[in-house]
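Lab notebook page, bench 4
Experiment: in silico fold of construct C2
Operator: M.H.
Input chain length: 285 residues
Purpose: comparison with the prior construct
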Amino acid sequence: MPAADRDEALRELGRMARDRRESANCTLEDIFERTRVRIEFLRGIEEGDYQGFPDLVYIKGFVRTYLSVINAEDLKDEFISWLNRESRKEQRLLPTNVLGDSTFPTKGFRQASRFWLFALLILILAGTGVYVWYSWENNNPFSSFPPVRASEPGGAVPGGNAASGDGTPTNMSLSRDVFLSILPPPVSAEPEPEPVKPSIVFRAVRGEAWMKVTVDDKVLFSRTLRAGSEVSWDLTAEARVVYGRTNVVEVILNGKNLGVANPRGSRASETYLYNPDGTYRKAAP
């Protein structure tokens, strides 16, 4: 069955349904108040335009609800028959990781550069050298001890300085200890942190919203995200996300909270692209 025949049949059925609604003196706003089906979807049914609708199962539910309100249920079988004649079936997969235990992805970070580690070590060595030189010039640690002279027989040092048992003058040992005490302790380099895999999290923070997530031409999620719930995946390639309501779902990309896609909201669905490197943009309509 050509797609053009299917589309024309759905447009004709939509016109018939609109005539029934108008005969019943019922507006789209009245139907919305009774069913809570968005006016954009109701208008799409009457115009035969199902672009931006969620999955087929939701479309059928909207049509049944709409027809029951305007007392046009005799059109239901014909509507469902034409809706079932899809020209292409999409592959649908359940999410690989639905978070229900309040766990959050690990925060992302950049790998430390070794250049800055070497620069820090050089600065420490240079500062140590300057400190030693300054201390030597202004307060020589050896100045408080007499000059070292060769010991005389019997272990005595001329000038009354005692010698150690191996013949080494005691003042030399003290001077060495004083010199070593002014050196700073050695600096140990900290290990570099392990890199974190790119990830993406969607969290419904302002109510429920339908959304569709596609990665590598595979549909990972295509349903309504309930209020207060969230889903997440490891992001191995560009993610294409279609939002039914752009001001409801909060996005966390590689540990960074991006907020909702469009705080002002939109009456039509919008598509955004998210990349593993942390960049994102709105897709062209």
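Observations: DSSP finds seven helices and twelve strands in the chain. The first strand starts at residue 98 and ends at 99.
Next step: discuss at group meeting.
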